[in-house]
Amino acid sequence: MSGFPIVPTGENVTRQVLSDHPELMVVAFRFGARGATGDPHSHPHVQSTYVESGRFRFTLGEEEREVGPGDSFVIPSGLTHGCVCLEPGTLVDCFTPRRDDFL
After folding, report:
1. From the record, what ranges are coiled-coil (predicted)?
2. Residue-by-residue DSSP string for 23-56
3. Which residue has the higher pLDDT, 48 or 1?
């Protein structure tokens, strides 16, 4: 069980750090409703995303892809990305190095 708080990041979206170390951070993003979004953004961290549950449409640079439970992918440093929730669920993201802005 994580001692980190659950933080709202948008309408029907929360973020919770699950574990962290200066070189790696694991974060759960929970999307509670169809249409909830992870707004387009970029960061210097390399990110991996694992779809624990739900369905999502991701934009990765110029590419769009739909993902569901068990899917995973890596987002390179600096690539603009975002998502739209198609079915409520949870994404588990890992960042290297740690996202200090999430602490």
Report:
1. none
2. TEEEEEEEE-STT-EEEEE--SSEEEEEEEEEEE
3. 48
